Structures are given as C-alpha cells and as structure tokens.
Amino acid sequence: MQPDHGSMWRYQAPDVPPDIHLTATFSEDMDPATIDPNTFKLLDQVTLQQVAGGVAYDVSTRVATFNPAAALQNGRLYAATITASVKDKASNALAADHTWHFKVANGGQPTAEQERAAEQERAAEREPTTEQRRQGQPRDK
Questions:
Q1: Percent of the chain with pLDDT over 90
Q2: 8 A C-beta contact, residue 26 and residue 78
Q3: Potential cystine with 110: which of 62, 90, 114, 131 (Cβ 3.0-4.6 Å)?
C-alpha cells in the first residue's frame, strides 16, 4: 500500500499555488483514526518548521487532504510526508514514510529569467528603429 500524491504535483514539482490543499490517494481503505496532522505533515524546507494545518480523510475516495492553516510562502520549498504510522483497515502500517517535495510559485514576483527578458525588451524599446536611424531621429519613449 502506497499513497499517491497525485500526478498534478509530482516529486519536486515547481510553481505550486500558495493556497494548495495537498492530497494523497491510497490504494486501500485506510483507518481514518491514523491519518492526522502527526502522520500527514508539511515541512517548510527553509525554516525546517512544521506547517500548521488540518487533515481530513474521505473514506469513499480514499483521499487524505492536508489543509494548511494559512497560504504557503511564495517561492519556498516544502516537503510533505505521510508517515509509516498510517494504517489500513486491517491495521497494516505503510512500509516506510512517503515524502515528496514541491516549490510554491513566486506569487507574481518575476524570476531572474523573467527579469532578464524584461530588461532586453526595455533595451530594444530604447533602440531607434531602422527607419528612425535613416532619418537620424531618436526613438520615441
């Protein structure tokens, strides 16, 4: 039995929205009493602090959801872990902790690559056009 954290947020996924609700889908019916914030954890990889939040388990879909108490920090790396303390209905525990990592989107802040592209565009706008060069005119700003 292994949780699937979904194809949408692959291991080391970049640009996850800051208001994400993390999900893990189990292949078997799980014991809901064993799925809680102590067994489905989120760790801020910068501060190394556990993120506060609640956990819900939907028996009908076998999906556990971690809901952070607040939006995650822009541009920050996080590690989500489902611990080996999670058990199925027959009291079988996971063989090992299952951890995946993701990075929260920069929240509108331009990346270094976007900054370089914007600067190139600004520089191009400052350059006179071919026609303006022929006429000896500077480019309008």
A1: 52
A2: no
A3: 114
